[in-house]
Amino acid sequence: MAVSNSKTTDKKKAPTSKKAAEAPYTSEASVVVDNTEFVKSDESVDNIVRLKLMALYSLQVIDTQVDKIRIIRGELPLEVQDLEDEIAGLSTRLENNTAEITELNRAVTEYNEEIARSREMIKKYEQQQKNVRNNREYESLSKEIEFQGLEIQLREKKLREASVAIDAKNKLIDDVKAQLEAKESNLRDKNAELSEIIAETEKEEQMLMVKSEKAKAIIEDRYLTAYTRIRKSVRNGLAVVKIERNACGGCFSKIPPQRQLEIRMHKKILVCEYCGRIIVDETIADTIETSN
Fold first, then answer.
1. CATH 1.10.287.1490 fits 74-211, yes or no
2. Contacts for 100 with CB less than 8 Å, ≥ 6 apart
């Protein structure tokens, strides 16, 4: 009978052992994300929801830090790009002004050659006047001499204008060169600063990305999809926010007391009725922020 009782006792214990083995989370180890430990040994619904909220808020904190790094890095490349565009514009102006001076110098040479030809023509006509046979030939040659004199005056006027234009262009080129030198110096400094920031922040960003992947690993796909969708739809990238002064930390709309109580009870994941962001209570936010 003693043996029979022993078998009966063993049979009664077996189902209990099997049930314990099938209980949720009892065989899973705790997960640590950014110094915050998410223990999955508690079977209560409240604690499961709380863990989900903690993981979502932890992911938000990490992603916000990544956003800040990218914002800091993002401003400098824009400044560098602006400087490069300005330098390209100044270089084009310099090339255009240099080309214009070259064209003006070519025109000056042509004007001088035309003046020389006109003077030769005047000498030729004056020589012909000495051998004319009548007054009509003399007057015709006189008109040609007068015309060549007017051509010389016109070319000399254009020479003066070209000389003034060349002086103005040379002054403009000097100004452009000075601006170009200053912009290029500024660009070298910005590029050095950008390279330094990239070197400093790249390692930190990589570490944060590893933490982000750890947080994502313990978040259900449906919540992760919702989180990503909300982040893309809001301007500041905040998909998960805490209660601040009885209001949503994202859109700052007032949250009714009853709604706040529901959020703090961790019965389910709740969102802001106005902006759609996921809301956590202060205890979860403080736990995550303190661990960071």
1. yes
2. 165, 169
